């Protein structure tokens, strides 16, 4: 039995021309979108995101759960979701924080993202969360068209997300300190054992540090991102999801050279960013699934017997 085709609509990130396509799976949709939009012809994979909010669609099961005629934006390798199309109501930020309009425009843009979909909280950076927390409650309530009571609950939730990330960061720092202490203890015991076994020979001290001097590497990351990666503990908790994706996709050797790190440390940071990104996207997908299920239940007709209240 042939697989059922799902009708979809695709377009380029900055284009208005849309193409209607039908595909039975995500891979087939990628192939058809690449041919229709003339991208990915160099063999590089393309990325499909939801036109509504920029959610990356890279899971076959999630694709099958989407409704018919879902709108997608196709991105070639190296392109980023901008969310400035006419049919996009809630988006990720396409520019780094220092390039986005500051002050009132900044928090209003973030508020519009939450107005479109509250699950965008998961994808925001710590700086974005703090901006919304600091907005006067009356102003945020007006922008969201919500009561001040509900807005207070929202800001409390934002603070809880921020606190949770800080707790996670502190836990990671404690674990790193513990592992470093164990490593130093093993090193000291090893040196003592060597000195006792060869008491009359002087031990040569060898510098095993890795130097990246002289390495010229170009990366797509901004100076602000480099500062976070180099100075912040558990930097993956500070960055928004789009920036996490950029770090994961960056060439490891180039990243290590730009940060004056060894390759192993750069790989560890990329792995941590990849895990954090996967966790956030999984949380968003779970929320969307729960929301769809809840809407389905509300649409079911209720009989008189089910609608009657139980008397005490």
From TrEMBL:
Entries under InterPro entries matching the protein: CIDE-N_dom, DFF-C, DNA_fragmentation_mid_dom
Domain CIDE-N: 4-83
Keyword Aminoacyl-tRNA synthetase attached: no
Pfam families (UniProt xref): CIDE-N (PF02017), DFF-C (PF09033)
GO CC, alphabetical: chromatin
Keywords: Apoptosis
Protein name: DNA fragmentation factor subunit alpha
Species classification: Eukaryota, Metazoa, Chordata, Craniata, Vertebrata
